[in-house]
């Protein structure tokens, strides 16, 4: 008879927590999971899934306009926000059920309530204390709103999916993934959209040429207020008044604060154990995702490595296999592809030009700016941009960056090639599919000056 109630107690039933629970249970462990909010975590409920559905909806705006150049004659269709929200809710509810079913079908005990750590091997949940040999924290992150006067009037990416009605105007604060995506989406829904960002160009941390390019492209549809920030928000009888550091006052129906997320480690009981946190509240872990309290592990957004759903899935799987006898596998954070679903999309894998230079690498850079064939007839003033970073010493492609429709779909396959060590010669020897935008990635021949 084990001295513990469970072999593994997981706090958080998002992507990482559910994957870890399923794998551990499949390896014979007695597993319990606590989830106080919703199955599937941020991604399924207020993150990548509903956001991608909204992005699909926004793309129809462009498609309807573009069709005229191809001979389709019809009036502009009406957009019904309530229909989109209701259909999105139905899909999210379906996914919630799938995640719950995964847990139940693997005999994982579910606590639908908040859990708090009370010791290295104990958790308080449902007004009782249970024990576990190992505890896994997969609690994710939560939107962070700056503390300016009137910040309580701002909404975040949690609430934006559930607005009762489509605003006529919106101010979006931020210059990262979420800000760009929602600014693009609302602009195409016909909302007067203003994006306020304290930097001089969008997407800090991305390749500088990509930043320059996407800032220009986003600026075609969204009013940009760069090198500026929000001082305060005040409630007016007909909406909000947003004051900027420049002195400009913006009137808007809604203000979306897309200013980052912080790990959800508050009120988790971590003061009862020896778990070391970062300055922003993230859990510090070693290469095996073990915290400074040996019995407690953590994965996903709460460890502040890469806030991506597939990464959390991989981390959760690794933890369970190393704890309960499955095949062990290390996780490399190199060449993990990611996408920004703004309009047009951005996808990137590997190093930026600046990162390669900072590493002291001798590189060649290939770039191509092109107007997609589709827009030769649609008349849309939208361009695409491709960039390859090549390490001269071995000819390996060490960075790829693409701004284009469906960029994520295109770059995913190239990420496989880069993980296999593909060289620029391999790219050059690959016959492109014509006419496609993807062929641009295997036909770039001239090194940028």
What does this structure look like?
The chain is α/β, with parallel strands linked by helices and 449 residues long. It has three domains: 6-141 and 262-324, FAD/NAD(P)-binding domain (3-Layer(bba) Sandwich), CATH 3.50.50.60; 151-259, FAD/NAD(P)-binding domain, CATH 3.50.50; 338-442, Enolase-like, domain 1 (2-Layer Sandwich). The protein contains eleven helices and 21 strands. Strands 1, 2, 3, 4, 5, 6 and 16 form a seven-stranded mixed sheet that branches. Strands 17-18-21-20-19 form a five-stranded antiparallel sheet, with helices on both faces. A hairpin with a 2-residue loop joins strand 4 (115-119) and strand 5 (122-125). The relative contact order is 0.13. The mean pLDDT is 96.
DSSP strand count? 21
Overall average residue pLDDT: 96
Low-pLDDT regions: none
Overall structural class, as computed from helix and strand content, comes to alpha/beta
Cα end-to-end separation: 70 Å
CATH superfamily of the largest domain: FAD/NAD(P)-binding domain
Q: Please outline the major beta sheet.
A: 7 strands, mixed
Tell me roughly what share of residues is in helical segments.
25-40%
Overall 3D shape: globular
CATH fold-level name of the largest domain: FAD/NAD(P)-binding domain
- Tally of discrete structural domains: 3
Known CATH architecture of the largest domain:
3-Layer(bba) Sandwich
Query: What's the helix count?
Result: 11
Gyration radius, rounded: 24 Å
């Amino acid at each position: 008879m084990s001295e513990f109630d469970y072999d593994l107690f997981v706090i958080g039933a998002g992507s990482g927590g559910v994957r870890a629970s399923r794998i551990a249970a499949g390896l014979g462990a007695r597993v319990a999971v606590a989830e106080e909010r919703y199955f599937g975590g941020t991604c399924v409920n207020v993150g990548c899934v509903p956001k991608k559905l909204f992005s699909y909806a926004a793309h129809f705006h462009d498609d309807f306009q573009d069709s005229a150049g191809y001979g389709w004659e019809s009036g502009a269709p009406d957009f019904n926000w309530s229909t989109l929200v209701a259909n999105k809710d139905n899909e999210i509810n379906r996914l919630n059920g799938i995640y719950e079913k995964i847990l139940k079908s693997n005999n994982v005990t579910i606590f639908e309530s908040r859990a708090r750590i009370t010791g290295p091997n104990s958790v308080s949940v449902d007004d009782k204390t249970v024990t576990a040999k190992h505890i896994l924290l997969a609690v994710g992150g939560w939107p962070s709103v700056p503390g300016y006067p009137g910040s309580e009037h701002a909404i975040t990416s949690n609430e934006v999916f559930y607005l009762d009605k489509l605003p006529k105007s919106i101010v979006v604060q931020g210059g990262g993934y979420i800000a760009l995506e929602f600014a693009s989406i609302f602009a195409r829904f016909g909302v007067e959209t203003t994006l306020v960002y304290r930097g001089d160009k969008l997407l800090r941390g991305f390749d500088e040429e990509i930043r320059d390019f996407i800032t220009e492209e986003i600026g075609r549809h969204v009013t940009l207020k760069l090198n500026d920030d929000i001082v305060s928000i005040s409630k007016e009888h007909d909406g909000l008044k947003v004051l900027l550091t420049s002195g400009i006052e913006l009137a808007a129906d809604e203000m979306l604060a897309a200013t980052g997320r912080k790990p959800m480690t508050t009120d988790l009981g971590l003061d009862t154990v020896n778990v070391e946190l970062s300055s922003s509240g993230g859990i510090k872990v070693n290469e095996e995702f073990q915290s400074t309290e040996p019995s407690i592990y953590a994965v996903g957004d709460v460890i502040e490595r890469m806030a991506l759903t597939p990464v959390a899935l991989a981390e959760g799987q690794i933890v369970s296999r190393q704890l309960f006898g499955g095949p062990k596998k290390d996780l490399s954070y190199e060449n993990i592809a990611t996408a920004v679903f703004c309009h047009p999309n951005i996808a990137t894998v590997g190093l930026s030009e600046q990162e390669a230079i900072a590493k002291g690498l001798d590189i060649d850079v290939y770039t191509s700016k092109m107007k997609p064939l589709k827009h030769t007839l649609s008349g849309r003033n939208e361009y695409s941009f491709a960039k390859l970073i090549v390490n001269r010493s071995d000819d390996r492609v060490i960075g790829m960056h693409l701004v284009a429709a469906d960029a994520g779909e295109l770059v995913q396959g190239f990420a496989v090639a880069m993980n296999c060590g593909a060289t620029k010669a391999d790219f050059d020897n690959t016959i492109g599919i014509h006419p496609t935008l993807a062929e641009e990635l295997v036909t770039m021949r001239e090194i940028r000056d």
